[in-house]
Amino acid sequence: MDTHIDEARAARVIDPGSGRHLHFLNHLATIKVAAGDDGALSVVEFAAARSFGPPLHRHLDEDELFVMIDGEVAFLTDEPDLDPLVGRAGAIAFLPRGIAHTFQVQSETARFVCVTGSGTGHPRFDEMVAALGEPTDAPTLPEPGYVDATRVADICQQHGIEVVGPPPAPLS
What we know:
Structural class: mainly beta
CATH topology: Jelly Rolls
Radius of gyration: 16 Å
Order of helices and strands: EEEEEEEEEEHEHE
CATH class: Mainly Beta
Helix content: 10-25%
Number of domains: 1
CATH architecture: Sandwich
Mean pLDDT: 89
């Protein structure tokens, strides 16, 4: 019997500050758990500054669960009559696959963890973050810079995420 446990599938505790750090779309992403070839979920921690928000998008295969560590984030869907859902430290936001959504940091900064799970295979969210991110040794927010929206949409599409609109206009 093979007693070797694949390191990616081994039980472990992931310490604060550890993981694969990336400057990703003008904020810091830290991959804590990569889904790998047979994983059922991925875990990515984010730190972002006020007004950050991704384009309106939908995950075709993955559900997302956001766990707010600190700060305040407004979550928006493409439902015109639904007001933004605001998450603060300790809150959890659930965004089911297929629902177009975006979010925007309302506080000076925010930290949150995004857990993705797939109903049709292994999650690819962490792979998309890695494809768009630039590795960094320093877990700090990057200086804001140009984001190529066409490249973002192309890479998202390759990872089962459909960009359907622009980032949100400033909410506050």
